[in-house]
Amino acid sequence: MNDLEFEVLDELYFVVSFSQLQEATGIEQSALKECLQQLLEKKWVKCMASIDDELEESEVDMNAHFQQYYYLATKKGLMAHNTL
């Protein structure tokens, strides 16, 4: 896990919108998008259509809708975050 992934996961203990995550971390939009894509591939984060509605992996389109999604660390992501 790199420092950027650690910082992003630190903010995802609760459901957070992309804009809230960007504001909290101060990470530039394209870098944050890339980091979230990496975290999704590792299954450390999940995407949600709203605070209550989790998206299936096949429904996620990070190229078109990443700014509209909400994000939450998975159990696997939290375990990785807490082992450092």
UniProtKB/TrEMBL annotation:
Protein name per the record: MarR family transcriptional regulator
Superkingdom of source: Bacteria
Family annotation (InterPro entries): WH-like_DNA-bd_sf
